[in-house]
Specification:
The complex is a heterotetramer of chains A (221), B (478), C (669) and D (316). Chain A is an all-alpha fold and 221 residues long. Helices cover 80% and strands 0% of the residues of chain A. The longest helix of chain A is centred in the N-terminal third of the chain and has 29 residues. Chain A starts with a helix and ends in a 6-residue tail after the last helix. The radius of gyration of chain B is 21 Å and the shape is globular. The relative contact order of chain B is 0.10. Chain D is mainly alpha-helical. Classes of the chains: A mainly alpha (221), B mainly alpha (478), C mainly alpha (669), D mainly alpha (316). Chains in contact: A-B, A-C, B-C, C-D. At the C-D interface, helix 15, helix 16, helix 17, helix 21 and strand 3 of C face strand 1, helix 3, helix 4, helix 5 and helix 9 of D. Strand 3 of chain C pairs parallel with strand 1 of chain D, so a sheet runs across the interface.
């Protein structure tokens, strides 16, 4: 009975994460995007916590905390600051319209399902579903990076991608701590480096638009 | 008691901390060389006494050679960068603080690379490669010119995406291993995985391999994941270009190989061969064509690295004892040759004060040693005898043509086109009427010629120990 | 054991290279290096002759080099011995010549180190007994010769020549590599013995034949793969040109013979069709190209193409006979081909030496700027003339003998059953005859325009006789031309072991025939005695001279030229090289070169001089090479856009790759 | 042995002695056909003797080669001519050079003559030798094709053997034989610089070939060259004679009577050949130089056709 319920809740949380990814994909204002990302991290934290509960693996609570504090609060705030400082709180110019992006997202989720459900059942269904969702989140994050022109939103896409990873990692029962550490570590480094870069970029150009970066080529045609 | 294995990791780690603390360019440079040499010495000692491999670290035929290779190239590059960075400070492209940072990062990179090689735990390996990536990102951006920043940014974005994909793959491997091996650490320990790989869930392994191929393939620089590589090589300091081409690509490829072995051991899983062959061919031919329009000398050789990675991946993808042997040999030879070329290129661009091919000409007249060194390097990298790469290309082509004629013809076409591109530029760089500044280079030619000498020797004679190790690995790779 | 000594010699040559680097700047460097290589090549030549005449099947040697599990195999069988002799004969002559010629080299450090290495490489190719050592030496040979071609790198066209040469050479090597890949199979039996054991299927060996023809042919300069040859050979210093034209092309022929006659199983009859056709076309095209040249060295290079064609005709006939089990005829054809290999290496080296001497004396390669050299450098003129007569296949010199044998082989070929051959062989015979006649025409032009007549430039007028070393080398080769021409029997017998190993039998023993005649099949059928012909000609000539001078007058008076009453003092009024070739150009040029003569007549009353310009098109280049270059350029241009995408686009690429692979997974199973 | 040697000697002598006579005959006939009196038969001998007596006037630019060449070409042609079976096929040294070698000997003679044309460095010499080699470049292959045809029929390139085989007449009439004969005549005309290819009697600058080459020669040199060309004419007629009219040729070890018969027959052949040539030359006009390739190309094609027929079927 409990297994079943546990399954449903975990399933629900993971599904929510995918849903939130879709919201990110849909959202095209920077502030709103930040908030949605915070929500994303929140949901992640919840699902990780739940995993910790049902796997009664205490160290996962730590991961949940990291996700909650770090991703749901600190990073959004910091990014908010940067946006204000850079004065780029304007609309994000997306490459493809929201509609097509959503459709693409649907396709990706379907693909993720097809690929993952191939997995034979003796890898337990919970892990299987989780993986399927995680994969969709990863793909959606990537899609977001691809469809946004603005550096900040690309960073957000990247981080939601990493959320997908965390989801997968926690879904993997009994995975050694090394993974969480590395994830946290990677997010930390990622953030610092991005910060440095955005700072430098601020120094150099008046935009963090990646295309502006691309104008400075080693080798012009 | 510290055995050689931990020594290889400890020395660079300590050195990194030390170099971060110590001021003064001369001292740090010397220290850097010293540390690199010490780790090289310890690595060599691995051949004499083979330490016990535990759940985190291991030594086997596959990584032994690469550890020695990595530490050796690290050592020679340190020597090279000592003279190179000195010149950079003189002309004021780098400030002492950045040099300190640079040296610390250099040792960190060495640490990460060695760790990636000796890691017995796929998670640990991933972490190591990630550290390596991040450090190189910082070093590529060190000049803080527009181009450098842009290159670093590009490298960073693409690299971290690659890292993420690789991590996902790693997790999937764990998921596949868990039902068989059971939860916990040992489901990520390489030596254990190998023994049980046959029983893993094939579908999971397949997905895992796709992610690992793309993730680590980004580091290897396979087209179409290569985009970071040319700019990172071109805009970073030349020692870093040497290390990138010579070591980082190898290490990433090494990680890929480990997982290929896993798949090879599982009969039900998708054959990794076709995927690798396809990507290899694409990279080889694509890079070969890209050589023709290059105006920046470092970018050109970066593309040639992509081409060779393509050849190597093709070889492993084809499989078979000979092709695998050739692939391993090619990895070794390429990293030695390419780093040697970058040593030459570094000094050349310092003499000429530019990296633009159009502005350098007649080097063999003005700086004979540098010029002929470059010519020799290009001859080696183009796969002409009697240097090492010819042997590996000979083995790859001749051993696979009977099996897959059309694919091999594509490969040969790529090789030929690449050769054409390389020599087209070499002719203008090394020969003809001299152009540009012709000051003699204050350079240490030792590293370059040491590498070329080794490559030459290997082209004529391979030591049996090396051969035995490679043959074991080749058999393992299937 | 002899193989070991030979390897010592090669090792000595290789050691010589670094020594040369050290000595290249010192004044004695030239003398030391060339002297040493002269001695070594002579020794190697002796060893080769011992192997050839000693008939001793020398055991192979396996050095612990090259592929670790295979080792480097070296062996000197009869075939190898013969080519070894050719290589080192040429090498010795070139070294002797260079002892004098090399002194005028202005950048010796770019020639000296590569020269001995080049010699060593050519020796190794011939001695190699496994695929890897063979290809390493083969490509090393190309590499060193490339370095020599671009020795004078400041001349733009030399660099271009070197570039094309290196590309074609690597192309050839890779083709051979594929051929060996087929022969050795996936598990890599690279040793020649192992390859001989393995019997590939018919289709496979046919493919190997094509690959070998392309690979070795591109090095030998077979049309249409010859494009690099007339560019690269003249670009090198003359003694190296002599080596490249006279010797390296023969090494290429060796590669072909080794693969097709030795390693490959019994031939299929249609192979010979391919080889014959290629040979015939090469012969005629080569000489036609040569006729259109007025650069002396380039003309000689194109003639190499022609002679390679003649050699391949012989090889093709040998293949045809071998395929139909006519061993004796095959032996005849093969002997003809190999004899021509030797002959051509001799007189082509001689001619290139002569061209080098002229180049030294006048600084000119362009025949339009030469003329009258016979007065200034009579000895060079004499030996060059000998070379011209020899290469034009005129009795009593050696060029005639080998072509005569080839004709004899053609005359046996009606007995071949295959219809294709029945139709092809006579045509090839006609082509051969045509090329012989055209060659004579071409060398009348070469010698006549550059050595006879009046000097066209001051440089030619102030020419001086070349040095004694060069002359010694040229006289030696000239003597060899005569000896091989009047005593061919000896050389034919020397080739017997070679044909024995390749087709099982050899031509009948010639040496013990009376009057040293050569009789390929039977006296009633055909025979030739160079010695007697030579003696007769000399005798009757001297008799006539003697008689006339004794009984009639020997008075002589110098006077201005009569020239039908219109003597023109300016040397420009002489026939130039291009005007000499004009009638032949009118006959063949329009079809082969799309040659057009554009005459611009000034309008009546204007004092402008009329102009006649001739434009020639190298159709093969336009059809085969230019498109490839264009294609690569185009592809490079198009692909180059990928260097300039935005990061997002690159990410899209990654993303697309991921999705694609996942789709593959989803569809797979 | 001695006898064979004597025969060989006789042959050598005979050809040299008869050659001018033949030329004289041809000239006389041509004159007669044009209803002129014409020079006496022995005129060529007189010319030669006079030329030999005269001193040589050597152009200033001439080199040593220029002076040697007349002897070389004379020797070459003479040797070639003395190896052709004329009245007897039992020549001692006939095996020392087969038909191919004989052609090649003539080829080397031409090679040197062409060089001589270039030696003094005059424009006419250039014209002559360039045209000469152009003609040769077509005539020689044609000749070789003819040789192929005949050799394939007779199964030998040995002239004496071929003559003996032809004499048996067991071959009968064959298409390729006819083709070969036709081609051979065409080549012979071209090689001997006769009308319509070239005019031995002209000194019109733009039409002459052979004469232009030897323009600078005088005295004994010129005599030798004239004698050489006369020899050449004789040689070709004798070749045609011994191959296509092999009647009366004395066998290897024939008695003096047979030899005498052979000699008479040979004289008759020469006479007939000369007559035909004269008639032909008077009947036809000289063609432009650049029509020559077509003419010789036709000869080449005929020869090739003959060979092809033989290759394809033994009975045509």
């Amino acid at each position: 009975m409990r297994g079943n319920l546990a399954f449903d809740i975990a399933h629900m949380l993971a599904g929510t994460l995918v849903l939130v990814s879709f919201m990110q994909l849909y959202q095209d204002r920077l502030y709103a995007l930040l908030n949605i990302y915070a929500l994303h991290a929140l949901v992640l934290a919840a699902s990780v916590a739940w995993q910790a509960f049902i796997q009664d693996a205490p160290h996962l609570y730590l991961t949940a905390m990291i996700a909650l504090v770090f991703k749901a609060i600190i990073i959004p705030v910091a990014l908010h600051r940067i946006i204000v400082k850079l004065g780029i709180h304007r609309e994000i110019e997306t490459v493809v319209g929201v509609g097509p992006a959503m459709l693409l997202g649907m396709g990706l989720v379907a693909l993720a399902m097809v690929v993952m459900l191939r997995v034979t059942a003796e890898a337990d269904p919970l892990a299987r579903e989780d993986l399927a969702f995680a994969l969709s989140v990863v793909l959606l994050g990537l899609l977001m990076m691809v469809t946004r022109r603005n550096a900040v939103s690309q960073v957000i896409g990247f981080m939601s991608l990493e959320n997908g990873l965390v989801l997968a990692a926690t879904g993997a029962k009994g995975m050694p701590l090394v993974v969480e550490i590395s994830v946290a570590f990677s997010v930390l480094i990622a953030f610092i480096v991005i910060g440095i870069f955005l700072f430098r970029i601020r120094e150099r150009f008046d935009t963090v638009d990646v295309q502006a970066l691309d104008r400075f080529r080693g080798e012009r045609r | 008691m510290i055995d050689a294995l931990t020594g290889v990791l400890l020395i660079p780690a300590v050195a990194a901390a030390l170099l971060a603390a110590l001021p003064g360019y001369r001292l740090t440079a010397r220290l850097n060389v010293l540390a690199a040499f010490l780790s090289f010495a310890t690595a060599v000692s691995l051949f004499i006494v083979e330490p016990q491999s535990g759940p985190y670290l291991l030594v086997d035929d596959l990584n032994k050679v690469f550890i020695v290779l990595t530490t050796f190239v690290g050592f020679t590059t340190a020597m090279f960068s000592a003279s190179y960075i000195g010149h950079e400070i003189e002309i004021g492209r780098l400030t002492p603080t950045f040099v300190r940072f640079y040296h610390a990062m250099y040792q960190t990179l060495m640490f990460a690379l060695s760790l990636a090689l000796v890691a017995n735990n796929i998670g640990l390996m991933w972490v190591a490669i990630e550290i390596a990536t991040l450090t190189t990102v910082l070093m590529v951006g060190i000049y803080r010119t527009h181009e450098a920043l842009e290159a670093a940014w590009k490298y960073f974005i693409l690299g971290s995406v690659g890292i993420a994909l690789a991590l996902f793959g790693t997790i999937l491997v764990y998921m596949a291993a868990r039902p068989v091996i059971g939860e916990g650490l040992y489901a990520m320990v390489w030596t254990v995985l190998v023994t049980k790989a046959a029983k893993f869930d094939p579908a999971l392994l397949n997905v895992a391999f796709v992610f690992l191929l793309l993730g680590y393939g980004t580091k290897v620089g396979l087209a179409p994941l290569h985009a970071w590589l040319p700019d990172a090589h071109a805009e970073g300091p030349t020692p870093i270009s040497a290390v990138l081409s010579g070591l980082l690509l190898n290490v990433a490829l090494y990680a890929l190989l480990r997982f290929k072995i896993l798949l090879a051991l599982n009969p039900a899983a998708i054959a990794p061969g076709p995927l690798m062959v396809t990507m290899g061919l694409i990279s080889c031919v694509f890079a070969a064509f890209m050589l023709y329009r290059r105006r920046d000398i470092k970018r050109m050789f970066a593309y040639s690295s992509i081409e060779h990675m393509g050849i190597i991946v093709f070889a492993f993808g084809m499989g078979g004892p000979l092709a695998n042997f050739a692939g391993l040999l090619h990895m070794t030879m390429h990293s030695l040759t390419k780093s040697a070329i970058f040593y030459a290129v570094g000094h050349i661009s310092q003499v000429k004060g530019t990296q633009k091919i159009a502005d350098m000409s007649g080097l063999t007249v003005t700086n004979p040693v540098l010029g002929w060194g470059l010519v020799l390097g290009v001859i080696a990298i183009a796969g002409l005898p009697p240097l090492g790469i010819f042997m590996s290309e000979f083995l790859v082509v001749s051993s696979t043509f009977a099996r897959e004629p059309w694919l091999v013809i594509i490969l040969v076409f790529g090789i030929l086109v690449g050769l054409g591109g390389l020599f087209l530029r070499l002719n203008t760089i090394a020969f003809g009427e001299p152009r540009g500044p012709t000051a003699p280079a204050q350079a240490s030619y030792v590293p370059m010629f040491a590498h070329l000498a080794i490559v030459f020797t290997a082209g004529v004679y391979l030591p049996p120990a090396l051969v035995a190790g490679f043959e074991n690995v080749a058999r393992l790779l299937g | 054991m002899t193989a070991a000594y030979a390897l010592y010699g090669v090792a000595a040559l290789i050691v010589l290279a670094p020594v040369a680097i050290a000595l290249s700047t010192s004044p004695h460097g030239t003398a030391v290096i060339y002297g040493a290589s002269l001695i070594i090549t002579l020794t190697l030549g002796m060893i080769a002759l011992l192997c050839l005449f000693g008939r001793a099947q020398t055991p192979g040697i396996i050095l612990p080099l090259g592929l670790p599990w295979l080792g480097a195999h070296f062996r000197i069988d009869a075939l190898a011995a013969f080519f070894l002799a050719v290589v080192n004969l040429g090498g010795a002559a070139a070294s002797l010549f260079a002892l004098g010629y090399g002194r005028h080299e202005h950048s010796p450090q770019r020639v000296l180190p590569f020269y001995p290495a080049y010699l060593a490489a050519m020796n190794l190719v011939v001695m190699a007994d496994d695929a890897f050592s063979f290809l390493v030496s083969w490509e090393f040979m190309s590499l060193t010769s490339w370095a020599l071609v671009i020795a004078h790198h400041r001349v733009g066209e030399n660099m271009r020549a070197g570039y094309i040469y290196l590309l074609m050479a690597s192309f050839g090597t890779l083709t051979l590599l594929l051929a060996f890949g087929l022969l050795a199979g996936a598990d890599g039996n690279y040793a020649f013995d192992a390859i001989r054991e393995s019997h590939p299927s018919a289709a496979l060996s046919a493919l190997v034949l094509i690959l070998a023809l392309v690979g070795a042919g591109s090095k030998a300069g077979v049309v249409p793969l010859h494009a690099w040859l007339p560019l690269a050979h003249p670009a090198a210093p003359s003694h190296v040109s002599a080596l490249m034209s006279g010797v390296m092309t023969k090494v290429a022929v060796y590669g072909f013979v080794r693969i097709v006659f030795d390693l490959l199983g019994p031939p299929d009859w249609w192979w010979s069709m391919v080889v014959l056709a290629v040979g015939g076309i090469t012969a005629v095209m080569g000489v036609l190209y040569a006729l259109m040249q007025h650069d002396l060295k380039r003309l000689l290079a194109y003639h190499t193409v022609e002679n390679i064609g003649i050699i391949f005709i012989g090889l093709g006939l040998a293949l045809a006979f071998k395929a139909h089990g006519m061993a004796l005829a095959a032996a005849l054809a093969l002997t003809a081909a190999l004899l021509h290999v030797f002959n051509h290496s001799v007189f082509k080296s001689l001619l290139f030496f002569g061209a080098g001497a002229v180049l030294n004396a006048t600084g000119e390669r362009d025949m339009e700027h030469l003329g009258g050299l016979i007065h200034r450098m009579p000895q060079t003129a004499f030996v060059f003339l000998v070379g011209c007569v020899a290469i034009s296949a005129l009795p009593p010199l050696n060029g005639f003998v080998s072509e005569w044998l080839t004709f004899q082989a053609i005359l046996i070929s009606p007995q071949l059953p295959a219809w294709g051959l029945k139709l092809l062989v006579p045509a090839v015979g006609a082509l051969l005859a045509l090329s012989a006649a055209l060659a004579a025409a071409c060398f009348v032009k070469a010698f006549g325009v550059s050595f006879l007549g009046r000097a066209r430039t001051p440089a030619a007028a102030q020419a001086h006789e070349t040095d004694s070393n060069s002359l010694a080398a040229m006289y030696f080769l000239a003597a060899l031309c005569l000896v091989a021409g009047i005593l061919p029997g000896i050389f034919i017998d020397a080739l017997a072991p070679v044909t024995n190993t390749l087709v099982g039998v050899s031509m009948p023993q010639q040496a013990d025939l009376e009057w040293l005649t050569i009789v390929p099949i039977a006296e009633s059928r055909s025979s030739y005695n160079g010695l007697l012909v030579f003696i007769f000609v000399v005798l009757s000539g001297s008799i006539a001279a003697f008689a006339i001078h004794r009984i009639a007058s020997d008075k002589l008076r110098r006077a201005p030229a009569w020239d039908c009453g219109y003597p023109d003092p300016s040397p420009a009024a002489q026939y130039t090289a291009s005007s000499f070739a004009q009638p032949i150009r009118r006959v063949y040029g329009t079809s082969v070169f799309h040659a057009r003569e554009i005459g611009e007549m000034p309008p009546p009353g204007s004092l402008a001089s009329a102009r006649l310009t001739v434009e020639l098109h190298d159709l093969i280049w336009d059809a085969a090479y230019a498109p490839v270059a264009k294609g690569i350029e185009y592809a490079a241009e198009k692909l180059n856009y990928l260097q300039f995408l935005t990061i997002r686009r690159y990410l899209t690429l990654v993303f697309a790759a991921l999705v694609l692979l996942l789709l593959v997974l989803a569809i797979w199973q | 042995m001695i006898r064979d040697l004597a025969l060989q000697g006789a042959q050598m002598l005979a050809v040299v002695v008869l050659a001018p006579l033949l030329t004289g005959l041809v000239r006389k006939m041509k004159a007669r056909l044009l209803r002129r009196q014409g020079p006496p038969l022995i005129q060529p001998y007189r010319d030669l003797i006079r030329l030999i007596r005269k001193e040589v006037v050597l152009a200033e630019g001439a080199s040593w080669l220029f002076r040697v060449i007349p002897y070389i070409i004379f020797a070459g042609t003479w040797v070639a001519a003395s190896l052709v079976p004329t009245f007897g096929s039992g020549l001692l040294f006939s095996w020392s050079a087969d038909l191919i070698a004989i052609i090649a000997l003539l080829g080397s003679a031409r090679f040197f003559l062409a060089l001589a044309g270039l030696d003094v460095g005059t424009s006419f010499g250039g014209i002559g030798s360039s045209r000469e080699v152009m003609i040769a470049s077509l005539a020689e292959p044609a000749m070789l094709m003819i040789v192929f045809t005949l050799a394939l029929i007779a199964g030998s390139t040995q002239l004496s053997t071929m003559a003996a085989y032809m004499a048996t007449g067991e071959e009968g009439l064959r298409v390729s034989l006819g083709l070969a004969l036709l081609a051979l005549i065409m080549v012979a005309i071209a090689e001997n610089a006769r009308i319509p290819i070239d005019n031995p009697a002209t000194h019109l600058e733009l039409t002459m070939v052979h004469e232009a080459m030897v323009l600078e020669y005088s005295g004994r040199h010129l005599a030798l060259i004239d004698l050489t060309s006369e020899l050449k004419l004789l040689l070709y007629i004798s070749v045609i004679g011994c191959l296509f009219a092999p009647w009366g040729i004395a066998g290897p070890d024939a008695n003096p009577r047979a030899i005498a018969i052979g000699f008479v027959a040979y004289l008759a052949k020469l006479a007939v050949g000369g007559l035909l040539l004269a008639a032909f030359e008077t009947a036809i006009a000289k063609m432009r130089v650049f029509r020559v390739p077509a003419f010789l190309g036709a000869a080449l094609m005929l020869g090739l056709l003959g060979t092809l027929l033989l290759f394809v079927s033994g009975s045509l």
